[in-house]
# Entry
Amino acid sequence: MVEFTGERVIRGLVNDDLWSEHVARYAFARRFAEGRRVLDAGSGAGYGAAELSQSAASVVGLEIDRDAVEYARANYPLPNLSFELGSCTAMPFEAQSFELVVAFEVIEHLAEYRQFLDECARVLSPQGVFIVSSPNKTYYEESRAQTGPNPFHEHEFEPEEFQSELRRCFPQVQLLLQNRVESFAFHPANTFWPAEARVDGGGGNAADAHFLIGICAFQALPGLRSFVYVPKAANLLREREQHVQLLENQLALSKKWFAETQAERDSLLDLYRRQKEEVEARNRWGEELNREIETLRPRVVQLQRELAAEHDAASSAVAGYEAKVTELEAENLAKTEWAFSTEAHLTRELDEKSRELTECVRLLSAAEATVEERTLWAQHSEAQREELERQLGLIRRSRWLKLGRKLGFGPAIDQP
# Structure
């Protein structure tokens, strides 16, 4: 599906008025297409080329947008109609290839519009006709005063400029005006008759026209007649009355909505007044608070000064505490080093005493062995043995002797 941008006219995606405005131009141009080779330059979605193909010998639609070309090919598969991808400022056709060239809704989109007109003149046969449209700049600016310029348009023409640019390429130029008009139609109910039209009241003013239509040729233009396109021959008055009724219904709904909105507005105004009163009360409270603050400000300044003084004192105390802590840490370090040194010294002394005690134990063991040996020697005399055993028992039971042995001193015991 080709993208709808608002500029691309696709049936079903635009309103009936806009659709009829565009189709009317092709219906007008179809009168010049009978049995001719036709080029639709800037063919868009293809509906206009399809309209021209109903009378022409062949029609080629030239379009630069690939999606639009694919859409046109899919929706208008007619035997005498083809669609080509290409630029209107560099047409891929030989000179004098067409007897009718139409370009609707194209020239205002091109910054290189003169190059476009040169290309149209190049591909048109000497007896051919070129029909081109452009929105009237004066009317278009007025109608878009609130919405601003059309962002898709590169250049819009006033009537005099439009004719001047067309005459640069074509010696024969006739300017027509396309306008939406009020009319009355006389027609059968369910059949179609050929139609005639009568236009009263003059042709109107070019400066006030909706669209400008240029009919151009290298030779004398064919006989031209005004053309009236009627999208739908229905009772427009009845449709307008029904539309008016619809508008009246919408107006009633709008009035109801307006009343509801008015009530909501009144409610909001009441809420606004209450909020305003609350804000004013809060402002008064704020002013009183500001006065209290101004009253308390000297006391705050005094407290800040006292706090600063206390802070300075605290800082001095902290500095003293830090110095004392540093001193104590140094003292603790010295004591720790002394403790480690003392522990090492005592450990060495304990090791030495342990070695001495081991030696005493060894000597005591040797003495006990000697006593046993002497006891055996003393067995030849029972009395001496008992005496010696008694004495030896005394000696062995003596705590002083045991202590003396451990320390390496004490009374000598006579041997028998």
Remarks:
- The longest strand covers residues 124-135.
